[in-house]
Amino acid sequence: MNSVEDYTYRYLETDDLDQYNALLRYTFQVTEEELTATGWKDDEIKQSKFPVLERADVLGCFDGKNLVSQFAVYPLKMNIYDTVYHVGFVTSVCTYPEYTGNGIMKRLMIQGLTQMHKEGKSFALLYPYSIPLYHHLGWEIISNKISFNIKDRQIPTKVSAPGYVRRVAWDNTEFHELHSHFASITHGCLFRNALAWEEYWRWDEDDTNVAVYYNVKDKPCGYMVYLIKNDIMHIKEMIYLNREAQKGLWEYIHAHDSMIDEVHGNTYFSEPIAFEMDDGDIKEAIRPYAMGRIVDVAGFLEDYPCDPDGGELCIELEIADTLLPWNNRTFRIRFADGGCKLTNAPAEYHLKMGIGTLSTLLLGYKTAERLFELERIEGREEAVERLDDVLFHKIPYISDYI
C-alpha cells in the first residue's frame, strides 16, 4: 500500500470495468446467491455496467494500478416546481475498508461536484448509505419513502372507476410515456432515460408485473409495478395522474383478494395512505429516502420558480459551504413575479444557514419556519416568515435509485 500522496485520481474507462464491478460487489456485498435469486449471472451484471461507465462520470482513486475508491455522477433531468433541471445522481460511492479514513472520498466528491459545476448542473442527489457522513459534507434529506402493510380484509372494497386495467410488458411504450407525463407534472420526479429504466428493473424478478389503468377514452392515467409471491402482493411503485386512476388501481388490487393475504407496498408521495382507507388501522413506516445538495447556488437560482402571490422580497442569504468555495458567501436575492434573481439592490432582511439547509428548503422538504425552530436558520423571525411567503412548499416525489 502506497502513501496517500502517491494515489492517483482519474475518470474510469471501459477497460476498468472488472475493477469497478469488483469494488461494487465487495462494498455492497452482492453475493452469488442474490444474483441467482434475481435471475442475474455475474457476467451479465458486469456487462450491464458498460453503459454506466460510458454515460456517467465515474471518478476513481488508484493505489498504483488498483482501484480503491470511486464516485460516479449520472446525468438526469429533474422536475423542480415544473422547471426541468439538469442534475447529477451520485451513485457507486464506495471505498475498500482498508483505505477509509484517508480523506479519499471527500476529495473524489469535491472533484466530482466541481465537474458538475463546470457542466452547469446546479443540483445533485443520492441515496445515502450513511446520513451522518453526507450531513457532514453539506447534503440534506429531501424526500421520504413510506412502506405499508395491508391485510386482505383491509383492502378498499368501495372503490370503482369507469376505466379498465391491462397488464403490459416492461418495455411498453405507453407505460414509459405515462411515467414521462407524470414526471412533467410532479415536483421532484426524475425523468427516466433508457439506462435509468435498466437500473429500475435491475434486481426485479421475472414475475414482476406492470398494470396500467386506462380511462374510457383508452388513455393511460396510472400504473402499478408489482410482484405476487408467497401470497403477498408487493407493490414496487404506484403512480396516477388523477383520483380516478388511483381508485381504478385499488379496484384492481382488490380483484386479487382471493389470491393474496397481504399487500406490501411503497409510496413516495410523503403522505400516509391510512386516512384514505375504510380500515385505516394498517402498518405504515416512514423513512428518509433521497438526500440532495445544491452544487451551484447562483446557477440553481437562475431558473428557480417562486410563489407569485408571495409579494416582492429582497433578502440576503449568508450560506456556509465548507466543501465548495463558490457557494460559501452571501447571496442577495430578489423574489418577485414568480421568479428570483441575484441583485445589488438593498436587502430588507438577512438570514444565515448552511448549504444543506438551503437545499432542503428550496426543494420544499422543510419550511423556513420549521428550520428556524430547529435552529438551522439564524436571523429575525419576520425574515423567516417573509421567506416562506415567496417560496413554494411541496415535498419532492423521488422514487428512483440509480
UniProtKB/TrEMBL annotation:
Its EC number is 2.3.1.-. Residues 7-162 form the N-acetyltransferase domain. It comes from Faecalibacterium wellingii. The keyword Acyltransferase applies. Coiled coil: none annotated. Keywords: Acyltransferase, Transferase. InterPro entries: Acetyltransf_17, Acetyltransferase_Eis, Acyl_CoA_acyltransferase, Eis_dom, GNAT_dom, SCP2_sterol-bd_dom_sf. One of its GO terms (molecular function) is acyltransferase activity. It is an enzyme of class 2 (transferase). This is GNAT family N-acetyltransferase. The keyword Nucleotide-binding does not apply.
